[in-house]
Fold this sequence. Notes:
globular; mainly alpha; 9 helices
Amino acid sequence: MESLWLILVLMIAGPVIGSILGVIKRPTEKYLGMMLAFSAGVMLTISFFELIPESIQLSSLRFAILGIFVGVLFMFLLDKIVPHIHPTRHKHEKKCSIEFVSFALFMGLFLHNFPEGLTIASGTVASFKATLAIALAITVHNIPEGICTSAPYYFCSKNRLKAFLISSSTVIPTVVGFYVGYYLFQYLSTSMLSIIIAATAGIMIYISCDELIPFSITKKDVGVNHAAIFSLIAGVIYVMALSWI
């Protein structure tokens, strides 16, 4: 039970910290890029070293491949239906309404965060270490998103508390998704669990390649961004170090 509380705290921390930063002072693009790269390193390492092998062990290579395809396809279709937020490229353009932009970002995050909760819950099937690593990666991922949701709303409303509360509420579907997955996964067959775990890996690989790695490169970067590279490697090392705990 204590472990569930720790995961719950991590899930809430990302949007809340990001929302606070968004109404106080916006971090630099370089710092946001480093956070995104670290999150990508964590997600990719968990996917290839923990989730995919666990999926194969539970059932077979065939179900693992099917699961990865399902996860990637799901995120692709979700991105087409509800375009996701890209933190480091968000800016306040004069031609659009800031209020509308902040509402669109809020709705996009709200819809995307439910499957993120399911993704965290899938780690409970593998191990607590996997769940903890996934939760931390998504927490880091959600901090810049919280910033980009609260900052434009605060810019428009001039109300720090209201902007913070509205932006922080995007954590609700994450928590709901986690508990739905946590209780539902206990009653599924090993083949279905194998597909779900592999689908989780597919989702995290898609997020890393579509959002985290591309947007860890800021506009000011010319050539190779070594800060992002070392941040990604730090994410890889973090997951590997968890095996010693």
